[in-house]
Design brief:
heterodimer, A: alpha/beta, four-stranded antiparallel sheet, 10 strands, disordered C terminus, B: two-stranded antiparallel ribbon, 79% helix, disordered N terminus
Chain lengths: 287, 343
């Protein structure tokens, strides 16, 4: 069977001072074109490692990643990454940051005017057209992340990889960003793999939620298909029993079956209760 | 009306409190407070310093007379300026006379060879204090620029390659603490052995000083550039990998800009070290420049010598300050890191 993206029995072992440490063990995942996948799991379970292997920033010790039946060996713009802390060049303006990527990817295929137009188009897509000449230091965290997304989208990636893209943002901004991302996704229908800690974010955005067991030697514990109608509206969904069911599934997986090993049982319970009381409705795991 | 009330209220207050209230009142806005902070306070401090100097110096008796106070030093500064003016007048007169002789020789139909010889003569008056300042500036500038041209590429390679850094680091660490004066004899001997030319482009003494400055300017720039380049954020490197930037683009677009703040810190350190080194080198090697001026005055031992040396000391300090401000301005102009405290 040929899938669009195939993460095939990927294991990775890092050499450490105390001997080899197996971080991932047999991660197996097939992703279709246009699918939105969330990777969720406790801190340190190796979610980022999976993403970095797909990006080509890390090499799997065993197994490999196939994108359209071609094995991934090195990083490339066809697997654009949105980093958690935006990773914009602080000395370049918003426009120049995106333009750098556009120039690099479309040097041969687009004219100068087309590249300028494409840069502006992608910044328009993330609603950043008003701040083209600002430096990253002069804009807010949410805006920086928008530019980071615009830069990744501008590369026209086959797979968009997002490493906790909204993790560093406050919850209101995060909500805005999620809505923006859904909007963009409706328009472009990209194939996305996103790492998140946020259960609501995962359920709201994803077609499938991939839940990972705890490391070391982490692997995929369970995959949850989220069959909610698109476009999704967060307010309508808040009351939706299906939505709450999916949420509960994820929470159960994370807290009952694969609770964080270094947290004592009792402490974990109270923590979970407190989180359920969280009145802004978003349940965020403490990392 | 309100002023009248305020003054009645403050009428019986002690002097100091009244002053403080006066300063804090609305009439003196932030502008005035800033003026006090940035100008008045340093000005008062300088006055105190001059007073202490004046009183203290008058109590020190040396073999060349009483240690000069600010007034004497100011007088000598003026004298040095007048000497400079007089020397310029003499020089102008010399070239005027020379031109006359050339004209006469041409009129008399002397052979071209002879005319060239007359025209080639240079004014040989002794360099004035201001000439010495200029010489020192030229020397330090040359030494600093040469050092930067060598140190920045080495620093970049050190920062990018851990292996190269490990190879070079011991050498850097050993030569870094070496005093310039230890280099000087070696430099002098090497220059006189290697730089043999009938028509030298530079004076040997100039080369000696400049190379000594170079040797001392190298290290801070190398070290800081290395730290800057090695400290490029891992995320930015990942971005360059995802974009598949080639080596050159990666260096120019990502590594160099992110290393620039550290690089300039190194350059500023280098220049201030270079300036200190230069004065010492000039003194010891009798190379022209401010250091030689100080040494000559010391040897001269007239009753004005100490005051003239003091003028030189102040000028050295002031020029060093200006050099530092200059590089700071440059650093501000090219640095993207607006949040960094640059002082």
């Amino acid at each position: 069977m040929n899938s669009y993206l195939n993460i095939d029995h990927v294991s990775i072992t890092f050499p450490t001072d105390k001997g080899p440490l197996k971080v991932l063990d047999g991660v197996n995942l097939k992703v279709d074109q246009g699918e939105f996948i969330s990777l969720i799991g406790h801190s340190g379970c190796g979610k980022s490692t999976v993403l970095n292997i797909v990006a080509g920033l890390l090499q799997a010790t065993e197994g490999g990643v196939l994108l359209q039946n071609k094995e991934v060996f090195e990083p490339g713009p066809d697997r654009a990454v949105v980093f958690q802390n935006h990773s914009l060049m602080p000395w370049l303006t918003v426009y120049d940051n995106v333009r750098l990527a556009v120039d690099q990817v479309f040097r041969k295929t687009k004219s100068k005017a087309e590249r300028d137009e494409w840069t502006r188009h992608n910044l328009e897509l993330v609603h950043m057209s008003h701040a083209l000449d600002r430096k990253p230091d002069e804009i807010s965290g949410g805006m920086k992340q928008r530019v980071g997304i615009a830069r990744a989208l501008a590369m026209e990636p086959k797979v968009l990889l997002m490493d906790e893209p909204f993790g560093a943002l406050d919850s209101l901004t995060r909500t805005h960003m999620q809505d923006s991302l859904m909007e963009i996704q409706t328009e472009l229908n990209n194939t996305v793999i996103m790492i998140t800690h946020d259960v609501d974010e995962a359920v709201l955005l994803s077609d499938r939620i991939v839940m990972m067991t705890n490391g070391p030697a982490a692997t995929i514990g369970e995959v949850l298909h989220v069959e909610l109608e698109r476009p999704r509206d967060r307010l309508a969904l808040a009351e939706d029993p299906a939505y709450n069911h999916y949420r509960a599934e994820v929470v159960k997986f994370l807290h009952e079956r694969h609770h964080q090993p270094d947290v004592p049982e009792s402490a974990e319970k109270t923590e979970a209760v407190e989180e359920d009381k969280d009145d802004d409705g978003s349940l965020r795991l403490v990392s | 009306m309100s002023i009248a009330i305020a003054s009645r209220k403050t009428f019986d207050m002690p002097m100091k409190d009244r002053l403080m209230e006066f300063l804090a009142s609305e009439r003196f806005g932030r502008g005035f407070q800033r003026f006090i902070k940035s100008l008045l306070i340093p000005f008062v401090a300088i006055l105190v310093f001059l007073a202490l100097w004046s009183v203290g110096a008058s109590k020190v008796q040396t073999s060349l007379g009483v240690l000069p106070g600010p007034v004497k030093v100011w007088e000598q500064a003026m004298v040095l300026f007048d000497e400079h003016q007089a020397e310029r007048v003499k020089e102008a007169a010399f070239y005027e006379r020379l031109q006359k002789r050339v004209d006469k020789a041409v009129a008399a139909g002397k052979p071209q060879e002879r005319i060239d010889k007359i025209q080639g003569r240079k004014y040989t008056g002794s360099p004035t204090f201001f000439d010495q300042i200029l010489t020192s500036l030229k020397t330090v500038g040359t030494g600093f620029i040469v050092a930067s041209l060598i140190a920045i590429p080495i620093g970049i390679i050190c920062g990018m390659s851990a292996t190269f850094y490990q190879a070079v680091n011991p050498i850097i660490q050993i030569f870094k603490p070496v005093s310039p004066l230890a280099w000087l004899p070696l430099v002098t001997m090497v220059v006189s052995a290697v730089y043999v030319s009938n028509d030298p482009m530079f004076e040997k003494s100039f080369l000696n000083s400049a190379i000594t400055v170079t040797l001392c300017c190298l290290w801070p720039t190398i070290i800081n550039t290395t730290v800057g380049v090695a400290g490029v954020s891992k995320d930015l490197i990942n971005v360059s990998r995802v974009l598949r930037l080639n080596w050159f683009t990666k260096t120019v677009k990502i590594i160099l800009p992110s290393a620039i703040p550290m690089m300039f810190t190194g350059l500023r350190l280098s220049l201030s070290i270079g300036w200190m080194v230069l004065i010492a080198a000039e003194m010891l090697a009798q190379n022209p420049g401010l250091g030689k001026f100080v040494w000559d005055e010391f040897q001269n031992g007239s009753s004005n010598s100490l005051a003239r040396i003091m003028v030189a000391v102040l000028v050295i300090g002031f020029v060093g300050f200006l050099l530092d401000r200059g590089t700071l301005a440059l650093q501000r102009a090219v640095s993207w890191d607006r949040n960094a405290i640059v002082r």
